[in-house]
Inverse folding.
């Protein structure tokens, strides 16, 4: 008898295409606000390759009718991200990653960065659809064109950076878990760095009912992008500028 394992046919060839579209709107006589956000991703993980592609953004508009004038505020965020990693065995892999984004909150008209990355997966890649814990290191140049002159009197600059990311993703019958720790640092000034810890878990109680918990913590000391003019009272109240 033929004992060769039979793998189910996959018409998508291991590709997964998550799509997210959301919006929010509210209004009254003296004020109104609306937000639109979207995200399109394409991911493929096999024994030999890991490919992650993502693009998306958000737009927010707020309008306030004051006693003698009308104040309107617009903000946006847009980013495109790509990661291509080739397996060097059951745990090690190497590849490249690149990112482009724009954000009024971070005073960025355009930010471009990309470079090589080395990754170690504590579980074999064959188990990646159910569980993966990865440690990734990358070093890359970063170019930024700013919307406003920064506190260092710059309108654009290129800096060398590096980062270390530890991430865990688990999908089981009881639910799912996604957690990460990311550390970032500028190499021209090692005191300029940031650390972010975040996590999300979904616990299935019964079919159709689940319990979700999300949290994030950041320690930020890399704000070389802050605008020299600072933020207006309105921008502080609306949290439109960091």
């Amino acid at each position: 008898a033929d004992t060769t394992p039979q793998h189910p046919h996959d018409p998508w060839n291991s590709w997964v295409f998550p799509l997210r579209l959301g919006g929010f709107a509210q209004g009254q006589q003296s004020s109104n606000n609306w937000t639109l956000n979207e995200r399109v991703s394409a991911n493929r993980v096999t024994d030999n390759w890991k490919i992650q592609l993502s693009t998306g953004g958000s737009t927010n508009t707020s309008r306030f009718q004051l006693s003698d004038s009308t104040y309107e505020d617009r903000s946006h965020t847009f980013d495109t991200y790509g990661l291509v990693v080739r397996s060097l065995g059951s745990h090690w892999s190497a590849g490249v990653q690149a990112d482009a984004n724009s954000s009024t909150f971070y005073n960025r008209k355009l930010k471009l960065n990309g470079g090589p990355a080395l990754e170690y997966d504590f579980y074999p890649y064959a188990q990646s659809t159910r569980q993966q814990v990865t440690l990734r290191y990358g070093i890359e140049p970063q170019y930024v064109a700013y919307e406003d002159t920064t506190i260092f009197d710059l309108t654009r600059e290129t800096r060398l950076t590096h980062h270390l990311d530890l991430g865990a993703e688990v999908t089981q019958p009881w639910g799912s878990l996604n957690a990460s720790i990311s550390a970032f640092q500028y190499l021209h000034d090692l005191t300029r760095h940031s650390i972010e810890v975040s996590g999300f878990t979904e616990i299935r109680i019964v079919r159709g009912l689940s319990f979700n918990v999300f949290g994030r913590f950041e320690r930020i000391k890399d704000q070389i992008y802050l605008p020299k003019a600072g933020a207006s009272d309105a921008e502080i109240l609306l949290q439109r500028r960091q």
